[in-house]
């Protein structure tokens, strides 16, 4: 019975991975060399939250590596792969710890958003872009803040709605 549940979770995580690839690689909008708008991180965060840090990390890894093969136009940097892995893994860790301590869903989702958008997209992504293109880090930080803050607010609302309203109906 345990294997059946594991396979079921693997299939669901794979579907979220595919959704991430579609939302980021096909429906993502590249505004500048440094700024892209997409909702590809939402399925990865959801994968970590629902299935734990291991499946979340694997979803992030698969989404990035498959996405690179699909979208050959951009430059590869392992930092982006690490960021994608962390986008799936850290929400799983936050929810594992938070559920043990009976922390509310709203607070847990806020912590997920702070990590993914504040640390990962806000601080690490400009570092990878600096290494790739040579643009000064401080310049990229300022430009990213304009993108990251609205992204964080929108994704907080979406993740909260999906987690509290849609997921219970699907079980």
Automatic annotation (TrEMBL):
Key words, A-Z: Membrane, Transmembrane, Transmembrane helix
Record-annotated membrane-spanning stretches: 6-27, 39-63, 75-95, 107-129, 141-163
Keyword check for Plastid: no
Superkingdom of origin organism: Bacteria
GO molecular function annotation: transmembrane transporter activity
Keyword Transmembrane helix: yes
Gene3D superfamilies reported for this sequence: 1.10.1760.20
The protein, known as: Signal transduction histidine kinase, LytS
Protein source organism: Anaerococcus prevotii (strain ATCC 9321 / DSM 20548 / JCM 6508 / NCTC 11806 / PC1)
């Amino acid at each position: 019975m345990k294997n059946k549940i594991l396979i079921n979770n693997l299939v669901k995580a794979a579907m979220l991975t595919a959704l991430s690839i579609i939302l980021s690689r096909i429906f993502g909008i590249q505004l500048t060399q440094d700024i892209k708008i997409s909702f590809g991180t939402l399925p990865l965060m959801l994968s970590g939250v629902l299935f734990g840090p291991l499946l979340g990390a694997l979803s992030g890894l698969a989404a990035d590596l498959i996405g690179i093969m699909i979208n050959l136009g951009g430059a590869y940097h392992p930092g982006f792969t690490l960021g994608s892995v962390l986008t799936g893994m850290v929400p799983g860790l936050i929810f594992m710890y938070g559920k043990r301590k009976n922390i509310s869903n709203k607070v847990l989702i806020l912590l997920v958003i702070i990590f993914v958008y504040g640390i990962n997209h806000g601080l690490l992504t400009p570092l990878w872009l600096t290494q790739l293109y040579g643009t000064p880090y401080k310049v990229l930080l300022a430009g990213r803040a304009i993108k990251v803050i609205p992204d964080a607010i929108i994704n907080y609302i979406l993740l909260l709605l999906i987690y509290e309203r849609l997921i219970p109906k699907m079980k």
